[in-house]
Amino acid sequence: MRGLGLLLVIVVAGLLARPAWAATGGERRVALVIGNGDYRHGTRLVNAVADARAFRAELLARGFGIDNVVYRENADRRAMNDALEEFLGKLATDAIGVVYYSGHGVQIGGVNYLLPVDLQAEKESDVAYDAVDLGRLLDRISQVQARFALTVIDACRNNPFEGRGRSIGAGRGLAAPSGNAAGIMVIFAAGANQTALDSLGSTDRESNGLFTREFLKAIRTPGLDVQEVVRRVRLAVIEKAKAVGHTQTPAVYDQSVGTFVFTPAGGGTPVADDAGRIQADDAGRIQADDAARIQAEVAAARAETERLKVEAARAELARIKAEQEQLRRQQQQQVAALVPPPPPTVTPGGNTSSGAAFRDCADCPEMVVVSAGSFMMGSNGIVNDEKPVHRVTIPRPFAVGKYEVTQGEWEAVMGSNPSWFKGARNPVERVKWKDIQEFVARLNAKVRSVAQVSTGGDGPYRLLSEAEWEYVARAATTTKYPCGDTETCLGSIAWYDDNSGERTHAVGGKSPNAFGLYDLLGNIGERVQDCWSENYSGAPTDGSPNTFGNCGEHTVRGGSWNDGSWFLRSTSRIKSDDRVSISAFGFRLAKTLP
């Protein structure tokens, strides 16, 4: 299926009731085609660009001059806006206009947005600022009062941000078109909260998604006006999707008047002469230079489609191998979980040199000693809550959990297991702030009783401060991720949305960082001791937790199995209501050393 949020919208505006095909009147045809698939901070859409190229080639064959087709692929925000302005500059009252968009989309507050490939959205206001407002685009098309305005975009109606641990879109799919839709027909490739099929199964050899292939087929049929094109496409999509056990019902919002024919009943392609008239004897003729370029475009589109097929096959093979490797590791971990944990490797009060590992009791978390040091905390990037960058000095060594607290460790102290993804060696989750505090208090009491550990106060175990967390997560690195600046390295150190299979995994399944700590990024988001603050202004510089700000909410670091690479950066931070318990949040322990 097409990735979450991939959208196809067809907008047909027939503002003047005129015949579809005028043998004595010229037609100026202009178009805008955008295919966005290579999203830098989200799910990549394999077929989006190939579908856009195929649609562009078809428009060129239907009389849209190559100089009048504005085309962009994998467009960032600026490229999308520039392309829209160029198209609107060509559109006129005597023109027929077509807009085709293939890519991610989302609805916020009843407004639909088309997403550029460079979008970095952490909250809904980011989308509203950086994406293209579809309703506003419809307004501007309507204001031109073109003879016909057609926008084609290949689409799902679900939410690309749903289930990613963020509130963007809040589970909502695309809404009915907003803005001034007078004289406009809008068609979504799928109904609300449906997904649009890219393929009808493993034996399907078509190179385009179901909706696009049916739409292209219909507009090639001579004599069909756009209303009949839409009716045929809708029926074909419903029937063919149903045949493979899928529900896909293109949704139609029609306020159009008049009609429009892609291909005349007599065959051929409409091409205007210098006098603006269409002659019957050259209705199917395209100027030689345009024809050569069209052939080149079609050949390029076919070659790209074949290349993407090969890429998809390789990706599928890699996915299968990864799943097999993951299953092998899970089986090993399940066997390992049956073996009693080893005895303490270092007794309390023993070796406190950097890198030394120990347990205070058989059921206690394994801890690793981390030396004192200083680092630059935060980022000067686009996210305000990671600013300002400031130096933090950790004044003395402390110990950090080698792994996130596991369900087995939680159950040994609390006597129950609230987690959604069960597994003794999986990180505990679905625990509220007060539950974590109760666990820490009980563990300290147990350690003081069993191992005679005493450092005064409430006990040695605690949560990390946010500064301590970033210090150990960076492990003396200054890059975006501890493994480098590109997300390609994340697969070796983290479980996240690209490889997690939408669940947590047993701790220690990936490579450790330079401090010998596992899963600081991904697997489970880790709550820290700090009250949430909107930025680092006035933040402590000695490694202590921030105790001002909103203390009904606390900071969560590291990202989870459900998050994309953006949220696994060493500097990324989010907040969580203390009353919330979800399967994406857990915690790691720290210990104050004597």
Structure notes:
With 594 residues, this protein is α+β, with helices and mostly antiparallel strands. Helix content is 27%, strand content 18%. It is built from ten helices and 21 strands. The chain has helices at residues 48-61, 77-90, 124-130, 134-144, 210-219, 226-243, 288-337, 407-414, 433-450, 466-474; strands spanning 6-7, 9-13, 28-35, 69-73, 95-108, 111-114, 132-133, 148-152, 184-188, 251-254, 357-358, 367-370, 373-377, 390-394, 398-401, 461-463, 525-532, 550-557, 573-577, 585-587, 589-592. The strands form four sheets. Strands 1, 2, 3, 4, 5, 6, 7, 8, 9 and 10 form a ten-stranded mixed beta sheet that branches. Strand 5 and strand 6 (111-114) form a beta hairpin. Helix 1 (48-61) packs antiparallel against helix 7 and helix 5 packs antiparallel against helix 6 (226-243). The model is unreliable at 1-25, 163-167, 268-290, 338-350 and 453-458 (pLDDT under 50).
